[in-house]
């Protein structure tokens, strides 16, 4: 019996501990398998030949360990934008980040066309306060060009001692020439859930899914319910806009907080016996109060699990713009003292059996924000379908991949059309056929 320790994640943050057991079973090797193995060994010999040629003939003496690390990372990043190699330091940093406190700028990033692309700045962090926006491309760090670096190398350059400045050069659609933003590094303490009373409505914002998220949600529901009063409480707004994702177990727990029964999400790997289903337990923390979920083009992964589960079960109305479309699950596989690999191992499916990979969650009520003049040229974020080499949609229902949608949220809540529409719907001052949701609960997946 071989045992492989792994971590599951569904976003740019890393995930819940799990154990995967691989059983040794009898098998017969066909002639085709022998031929495939032989061809693979020839390719490995080719790699060895190139490696030795580089070591012996390159103009400068290369670092052997660095060559191997870059070769591994190249193999993984060629699969999709979310698979990569993590050095021992990167692996340790990831583990710290999932606990909700780490050093840095406070941005979630990916790689696109050789540049670092900002998925979203994290609320109340140095990058957020400095004006970095989702969709921005970082082309230079302290005057040094990004192109040619891996994502991990670029992220490492953005890290540094607390209270030191870093200058990032931004290329922003619709902004003309690239421009510089100076950001002061700080300890990023992520309070993943914030809440407040909006009169007779409980407003709960979830910025990411880390180890503290479900506990924060539970506390937010309890405090807002107590302050508003059960008799006066019209319902809840769960704001998942620009939430890049995080831990799978926390997405399941947050969904379960509003459901009494039924499937929340399923994950399906390459082999049919790898399918896992996650079901709700009885107990709705809101006692059935109406719920509206806010999403936009920056709502990814774990956010989409929550929105998809509550939408399919007709438990909540989803309002805003189409979500990012990251419907894949990554497994963090530790390599002992050599770090870890982050590998896409499954797609996830909403309770109705729908994969949102490269398509996203379509809101029940679409609502676009009014953009300020300086942003009218950049109304969209790329979305999963715009990432080079992304895992393709299964496209079983003929639905085409979607390239992305608006991800702007005004700083002042009085200008926030999506939030204000949600408040009006809960108070009954506006009506829409999609609220409250009607119809049968989601059917079981096929």
TrEMBL record:
SMART domains (alphabetical): PDZ, TSPc
Gene3D superfamilies: 2-enoyl-CoA Hydratase, Chain A, domain 1, 2.30.42.10, 3.30.750.44
Region of interest called Disordered, as start-end residue ranges on this chain: 362-415
Domain PDZ, residue spans: 91-173
Keywords: Hydrolase, Protease, Serine protease, Signal
Signal sequence coordinates: 1-23
Basic and acidic residues composition-biased segments: 387-402
A Pfam family matched in the record: CtpB_N-like
Top-level taxon: Bacteria
CDD domains in the cross-refs: cpPDZ_CPP-like (cd06782), Peptidase_S41_CPP (cd07560)
Stored InterPro entries: ClpP/crotonase-like_dom_sf, CtpA/B_N, PDZ, PDZ_sf, Peptidase_S41A, Tail-specific_protease
Transmembrane annotation, as ranges: none
Family membership: Belongs to the peptidase S41A family.
Name of protein: S41 family peptidase
Species the sequence originates in: Roseibium algae
């Amino acid at each position: 019996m071989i045992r492989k320790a792994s971590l599951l994640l569904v976003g740019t943050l890393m995930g819940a501990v799990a154990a995967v057991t691989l059983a040794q079973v009898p098998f017969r090797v066909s002639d085709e398998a022998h031929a495939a193995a032989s061809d693979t060994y020839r390719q490995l010999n080719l790699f060895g030949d190139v490696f030795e040629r580089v070591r012996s003939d390159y103009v400068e003496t290369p670092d052997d360990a660095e060559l191997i690390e870059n070769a591994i990372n190249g193999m993984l990043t060629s699969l999709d934008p979310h698979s990569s190699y993590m050095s021992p330091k990167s692996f340790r940093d990831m583990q710290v980040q999932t606990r909700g406190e780490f050093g840095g700028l406070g941005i979630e990033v990916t790689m696109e066309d050789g540049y670092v692309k900002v998925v979203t700045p994290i609320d109340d962090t140095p990058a957020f306060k400095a004006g970095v926006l989702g969709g921005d491309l970082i082309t230079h760090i302290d005057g040094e060009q990004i192109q040619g670096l891996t994502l991990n190398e670029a992220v490492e350059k953005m890290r540094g001692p607390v209270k030191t400045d870093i200058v990032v050069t931004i290329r922003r659609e619709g902004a003309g020439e690239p421009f510089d933003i100076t950001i002061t590094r700080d300890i990023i303490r992520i309070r993943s859930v914030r809440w407040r009373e909006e009169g007779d409505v409980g407003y709960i914002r979830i910025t990411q899914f880390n180890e503290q998220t479900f506990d924060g949600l539970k506390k937010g529901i309890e405090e807002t319910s107590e302050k508003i009063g059960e008799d006066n409480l019209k319902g809840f707004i769960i704001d998942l806009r620009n939430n890049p994702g995080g831990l799978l177990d926390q997405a399941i727990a947050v969904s379960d907080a509003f459901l009494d029964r039924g499937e929340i999400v399923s994950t399906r790997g390459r082999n049919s016996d790898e399918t896992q289903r996650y079901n709700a337990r009885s107990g709705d923390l809101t006692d059935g109060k109406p719920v509206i979920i806010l999403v936009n083009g920056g709502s990814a992964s774990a956010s989409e699990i929550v929105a998809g589960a509550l939408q399919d079960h007709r438990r909540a109305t989803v309002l805003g713009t189409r979500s990012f479309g990251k419907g894949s699950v990554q497994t963090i596989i530790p390599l002992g003292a050599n770090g870890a690999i982050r590998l896409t191992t499954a797609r996830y499916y909403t309770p109705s059996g729908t994969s949102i990979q490269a398509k996203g969650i379509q809101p029940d009520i679409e609502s676009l924000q009014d953009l300020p003049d300086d942003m009218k040229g950049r109304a969209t974020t790329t979305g999963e379908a715009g990432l080079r080499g992304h895992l393709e949609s299964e496209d079983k229902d003929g639905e085409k991949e979607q390239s992305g949608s608006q991800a702007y949220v005004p700083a002042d809540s009085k200008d926030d059309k999506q939030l204000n529409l949600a408040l009006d719907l809960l108070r009954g001052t506006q009506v829409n056929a999609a609220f409250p949701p009607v119809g049968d609960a989601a059917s079981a997946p096929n």
